[in-house]
Design goal:
- Two copies of one chain form a homodimer.
- By secondary structure, chain A is an alpha/beta fold.
- In chain A, about 35% of the residues lie in helices and about 20% in strands.
- The first copy, chain A, contains 14 helices and twelve strands.
- In chain A, helix 4 packs across helix 14.
- In chain A, about 65% of the residues are buried.
- The model of chain A has no long low-confidence stretch (mean pLDDT about 95).
């Protein structure tokens, strides 16, 4: 396997782009990434596009080929991959593999989703495509329901409080205020959070990420190519892992731990040859406030049961022991599902270049994490500042 | 790159399975392929699933993880890929790459689609997800419309007649009669074909493949592993190619040739180190009768302009110069979209094992071909009988 680097990044703002077709958003982000990398279109040897629900919400598939067509790429393999909320991370891993295994020297990763044009009922139905609908879906489960149950178990077992979980929201919303790509940054008080409308007890409005449109893109190259490039500072891919977990809630051994995340983190640390203490920042999958708590524990970054406590104590702040979601995360930056995993890597690259608007000081190693469905698909990546080797 | 072999195949019949969930069909085909290969579930290192429109038609995504869950596979990477009608072929290529590049020693490929439970209008809308809906779709185009136009151009340029094209239908429907997996084999006369209802002039009813449910699966292994296996006779993968073409009709240089097919065939012959005359049989993408004519020419198997004439002269029959669609093809076997490319390879494997119910005599080398959308995605594979090396 050849070493792989990220040479270019691009992104639309996450938020409302109603009226702009998904392929236009995707092509816009991709063109920005190509320009940032200083890589010619003719050099791109593969395109992977992460998308989840453009079929149900837009009646539009074949997005990988359509985006290549709009960009004027060569007649290369163009593949859409899907694994619910992990779709973007899966696209990244496949592009990294294409280079690592010598299939091509440069590859384009795109993640895209449009959702805000649809009604709330349409979005909920489309998101439920990520569930095993023969069992969990048929039982009336929704994703707020799943994470509401996980919260209850976490609270009962570890004594996690509403106020501690609110600290995750306050942190991410405040981080989002500093991020021009973020949809819903805000300065929130505990009172505002705790007086917000109930969604699915104990989840309230601010515990849930918004519905978003957006696209993000990355240009990956063989590391040798990156070192000779006149473009932006390269970021090295130390690990890119994809795992699966149980597809149904009844298959989970523990309601507040996802085995796909635990396995992916373990494999990623082994691939990278580092440990959790080496991670300066993580962009992880906080689709709900309690998801950040569980993910940070599953990734091994925070002791089991202490995820919310660490947030409340400021230990996951941008200047804390490990910066969790300095971008604002899904809660504040937004969650255009197929774009999210690619957008997280975009944020991590800016951090490792030292040019993030909410910069983690001396950031050298970053992690990103996606979790799809009820834990059925997971991706974890570890990235390092290119000059830190 | 390590050599790759196909060790096991499985398939549901193609046809009507209304009431059976898509993941059940997929798991059924996969379990059959695993048993056929004599490969343990614990040995499978990656799963690729081809599917096109389960989101719009079933409200069910994350099928790759769900199928792995039902089969009891390890916590391996499970990926759905999509490229419209080429989805199954794309899944196969990625599994072959996973083995060729040493990511794993055994991989599972699954293709699945369910369509017959939906209304005609729902199916047409879902199939149009394969079109660029900002341009071609907005113009009112449907896929019968595209291939109707292609037929008109072919007829004007090469003098292709209704009666010649009917020979493609008669051949494939007759082939389908011999295939127990086929949905709609039939003994048809020219009169029955020519008196069938118009669909989109000049296409009539029998020019169009049916709407189908079905799933197919393959177990791929490193060739060294295949040679020592007690299971079925292995089939070697000589080439697996994926290309893209124009996403919009206006982007095609020629209305009766698809550049994605031409490029994929050229690359596949180069990879395999053989030429068109070495192909004993091909399973190609006859979504419409005229598509077989064009595909057989684009693949270089039949001289340009003579595709329909060759069919009329019996030169593409099972005992002809090159057997085209001895399974019955999409026209007779059916077209559960995501399953089609995997099912074609299943048919080719049975031929190369010498155990097909419509056997091509002394079949040693087979080709399969998928074309997605209006030519935006294409896959071509070349397979060889394992003992013929």
């Amino acid at each position: 396997m050849r070493p792989v680097s990220i040479l270019g990044v691009g992104s639309t703002p996450f938020g409302r782009h109603a009226g702009t077709p998904i392929e236009t958003l995707a092509a816009r982000a991709a063109a920005e990434a190509l320009a940032d990398a200083g890589v010619e279109r003719s050099e791109i040897g593969a395109l992977y596009l992460g998308n989840f629900i453009s079929g149900p919400l837009n009646g539009q598939e074949v997005l990988a080929g359509m985006v290549a067509d709009r960009l004027g790429l060569p007649n290369i393999p163009c593949t859409k991959v899907e694994g619910a909320c992990a779709s973007g991370g899966i696209a990244f891993r496949h592009a990294a593999l294409a280079i690592a295994t010598g299939q091509c020297d440069a590859a384009l990763v795109v993640g895209a989703e449009t959702m805000t044009h649809a009604s709330g009922a349409e979005v909920t139905a489309a998101l439920n495509c990520a569930m095993d609908n023969g069992s969990d879906g048929a039982s009336g489960l929704t994703f707020p329901g799943l994470f509401g149950m996980a919260w209850r178990v976490h609270a009962a077992r570890y004594g996690t409080t509403r106020r501690q979980v609110s600290a995750v929201i306050r942190k991410n919303k405040a981080n989002g205020l500093k991020n021009p790509l973020a949809q819903m940054g805000a300065a929130l008080t505990d009172e505002v959070i705790e007086q917000s409308p109930p969604i699915c007890d104990p989840l309230q409005l601010y515990d849930c990420c918004p519905v978003s449109d957006g696209a993000a893109a990355l240009v990956l190259v063989a590391r040798d190519r990156a070192r000779g490039s006149p473009g932006s500072a390269p970021v090295d891919v130390l690990a890119s892992v994809q795992t699966r977990g149980a597809a149904r809630i009844a298959g989970h051994a523990d309601m507040c731990s996802f085995e796909a995340t635990v396995a992916a983190a373990r494999q990623a640390f082994a691939q990278a040859g580092i440990g959790p203490k080496d991670i300066d920042l993580v962009e992880l999958h906080d689709c709900f406030s309690i998801a950040e708590v569980i993910d940070s524990e599953d990734l091994g970054l925070v002791p089991r049961g202490e995820g919310a406590g660490w947030a409340a104590e400021g230990r996951t702040a941008v200047d804390g022991e490990v910066a969790v979601n300095p971008s604002g995360g899904l809660l504040a930056k937004g969650h255009p599902v197929g774009a999210t995993g690619v957008g997280q890597i975009h944020e991590a690259v800016l951090q490792l270049r030292g040019r993030h608007p909410n910069q983690v000081r001396d950031a050298e190693i970053a992690m990103t994490h996606n979790l799809g469905g009820t834990g059925v698909a997971c991706t974890v990546n570890i990235l390092r500042r290119g000059d830190a080797a």
